Amino acid sequence: MDDSLKMLFDEQTIERKVAELAAKISHDYAGKEVVLVCILKGAALFAADLCRRLTVPLALEFVHVSSYGSATVASRTITVKKDIDADIRGKNVLLADGIIDTGNTMDFLLKRYRERGPASLKVAVLLDKRSRRSVDVPLDYRGFEIPDEFVVGYGMDRGEKHRNLPYIAAVRT
Ligand code: IMP
Ligand code: MG
Q: Which ligand is nearest to the CA of 39?
């Protein structure tokens, strides 16, 4: 591994946690249909692994949001570059992201989709950088809580690098 990176969660640890989350979600939504919304780009790997393990009927949707600013500072201006295609009125919607930091992105999307009248709207995140939260967001399914370190891998990037790493690492500063 790159000297600038410090291992946080290896492939096996991630796999076990995703399986655990998938089991809970499958149990909670038993008998229902789910619209899983993958928040691009960061949730691409998490959503891909999660959806394969869900046993409920599922539609996969993608929303591409971006915030401007430097690699490590999340800007407060969120723009939707590509929205989901599906009409979610009356549907059970589950938003998936790799990491929740300040909570602004998730808060923005929850407000946006709540207006469309889904039957339910929940959140699944793999990583929770809780100490950084500035907006209170209910996390229905959460993988790991992490300290305030910048992480890469398993979909998450620093300046578009490292998304493809199968593990999650902190960037040494
Ligand atoms: P928010 O501050 O909760 O709105 O997080 C915004 C977005 O910033 C997340 O969806 C990630 O794409 C990105 N982000 C936040 N923290 C990290 C990190 O440690 N590594 C990589 N991306 C991050
Ligand atoms: Mg990023």
A: 1
Dihedral (CA of 101, 103, 108, 114) sign: positive
The pTM (predicted TM-score) of the whole model is: 0.95
Q: How many CB atoms lie within 10 A of CB 54?
A: 17
CB 65 within 8 A of CB 43: no
Ligand 2 center to 87 CA (angstroms):
27
Based on the number of CB atoms within 10 Å of its own CB, is 36 exposed (0-12), middle (13-18) or buried (19 or more)?
Answer: buried
Pocket test for ligand 1, best of 9, 38, 99, 146 (most atoms within 8 A of CB): 99
pLDDT of amino acid 68: 67
- Helix (H), strand (E) counts: the chain: 3, 9
Three-class DSSP category at 26: helix
Q: How far apart are CA 61 and CA 92, in angstroms?
A: 12
How high does pLDDT run on average in the chain? Answer: 95
- Given a cut of 70, the residues of the chain with pLDDT beneath it are 68-76
5 neighbors 170 (Cβ within 8 angstroms): yes
Specify the pLDDT at position 69: 54
> Which single residue is written with the structure tokens 């291992």?
7
